[in-house]
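dumping this here before i forget
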Amino acid sequence: MNNQLIAKNIALFTQRVEIVTEYNERRDCADQRVPEFLWACGFVPVPLPNNEKYIEEIVESVSPKLIVLTGGNSLVRYGGNAPERDAADKKLLDIAINKRIPLYGFCRGMQSILDYYGNELEAVSGHVALTHYITGNIEGEVNSYHNQGCVKLINDELEIMAKSEDGVIEAIRHRCYPIYGTMWHPERENPFSDRDKEILQHLVIPPICKGEG
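structure:
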């Protein structure tokens, strides 16, 4: 990968918050497979801190081609303990929309997208540490590691792309902006799925809204 390609294909990705009480620390961290997956998709992965004060400057400095909201930590309103992460996700969604930067969220990242557009999450069972079948625009087996999900969209800006057999929404996209979410973890597939790679690669070509273009 040459320097010119690297400069054009940066993907910023968020990190989970781990609280280490014995050191009185709140740590930002991510599964090492997240940057591996992004690299496999043709992007140069760059981690973001969970500090909204710096996020806009970082985005301006690196001009990312993609923003990724990763998994880990429940939203605070659903029992989570990382308010700084909620704020960072919201800031990144604001920036992605204003600047038309493609954004992909998985698991907690998709939950952030749903919450941003006013959709309610609820407790779901049978969706932790297993695989299940999804149908819709995307079909097949996916992994599942979430305790909360959404069964009905109340915001028509989002479109359902796939559901599980018990009716939980497993994939969404925005009808106008280049925003896509999945409830499964693409980085936990071994090998990485061509389906998941294609989602990210196609996402950098934004959809055209009615009346545009």
